[in-house]
Amino acid sequence: MIIKAKKHQSNQLNFTLFTILITLILVSFFILKESNFSKQIPDIVEIPKEVQESIKNVKPQKSLRVPILMYHYVEYVKDEGDTIRKSLNIVPFIFDQQVKTLKDAGFSFITTADLADALDNKASIDPKSVILTFDDGYRDFYTDVFPILKKYQVKAVVYIVPNFLDRSNNLTSWQLKEIAQSGLVEIGAHTMDHTYLSGLPLERVEYEIKQSKEYFESNFGIKVVSFAYPYGAFDNQIIDVVKKAGFKSAVTAISGIFALDVNRFFLYRVRPGVKAGESLLELFR
After folding, report:
1. Which of 15, 179, 17 is nearest to 111 (CA)?
2. Residue 239 confidence (pLDDT)
3. pLDDT digits (tens, 9 = 90+) for 135-175
4. Apex 240 CA angle, 236 and 246, nearest 5
5. Phi/psi of residue 41, each to 5°?
6. What residues in the chain have per-residue pLDDT under 50?
7. I need a surface site. Which of 93, 118, 170, 256 has the fewest CB within 10 A?
8. What is the pLDDT of residue 278?
9. 158 Cβ partners below 8 Å, 6+ apart?
10. Pick from 165, 167, 168, 184: nearest CA to 176
11. Helix (H, G, I), strand (E, B) or coil at 218
12. Beta-sheet strands, E only, within 102-178
């Protein structure tokens, strides 16, 4: 009996240790995953040479002067130690002033879907058009950006990572549903996991791109036509997958204000920073 009791205690101890080990492994995995995402990876800010080579003899048939502004966080950052967040952030007051500046200057706020139609000659856009884009789908888009869009009745595009939905820092599914039904916001895809696509096997690239589009279309009943490359990383293979997936355009982190038919799958964007008033308008001249 004593031997059996000791064996039972030993089995219980082994089971407890095994459970603790598995828990530690899982916790470590999720911490590592979060830390890898928060780790700052430099954006690709130039057209890759292979893409340049593929279009060097292609003459543009359509050119539109449409500044596409690039945002991430719009909030009052509480953690002073979060240097990455602070470097990508502007406060809501500044964003409000930027929208007011553009509206007072006579700009029309359009979406990437509108731009794609214009490049296809299916629709015309105002010569003074601008697009507001927000990457990653942080929760401050709902709490801070969305109220300003409604205040001025202007359109915007938010690029969302499906597997980040409902995290503490990101949009919830019901918030996204409200945003999508507002008529002011176009939902774009940003891969399933915010993955740096360049150099990945074709099968993984296809999953990240195609599945991110299908997720929103099947779960929210919306049409997704624009894609954003995480970290601005792309190449010819990635562009080909984006096209075949049914997207009409894709945005990068490359600086510029002109949209051409030849670069509709690597559209340039502008980082407005904290500029407002005349200094913001100067970016477009």
Report:
1. 179
2. 98
3. 999 999 999 999 999 999 999 999 999 999 999 999 999 99
4. 150
5. -105, 130
6. 6, 17-38
7. 93
8. 96
9. 133, 134, 137, 141, 179, 185, 186, 187, 188
10. 165
11. helix
12. 108-109, 129-136, 156-160
Pick from 192, 84, 71: nearest CA to 138:
71
Helix (H, G, I), strand (E, B) or coil at 43: coil
CB 134 within 8 Å of CB 158: yes
Instruction: Give the integer Cα–Cα distance in Å for 265 and 252.
Output: 9
**What Cα–Cα distance (Å) separates residue 207 from each residue in 50, 193, 266?**
23, 10, 20
Question: Under 8 Å CB-to-CB from 20, ≥6 apart: which residues?
Answer: none
pLDDT at 31: 38
Supply the pLDDT for residue 264: 97
- The DSSP bridge pattern shows strands 129-136 and 68-71 to be parallel
Rounded Cα distance between 223 and 240, Å, is 20
Radius of gyration of the CA atoms of the chain, in A: 22
Q: For residue 20, what pLDDT is reported?
A: 46
Do 192 and 162 meet the contact criterion of CB atoms below 8 Å apart? yes
Count CB-CB contacts under 10 A for residue 115.
25
Q: Tokens at residue 181, please?
A: 């039904």
Residue 190, token pair as written in the block? 């940003």
267 within 8 A of 259, measured Cβ to Cβ = yes
For residue 48, what are its two tokens?
């890759």
Q: Could you give the CA distance from residue 30 to residue 172 in angstroms, rounded to a whole number?
A: 19
Residue 25: per-residue pLDDT: 37
Among all chains, which residue has been given the structure tokens 């040479």? 49
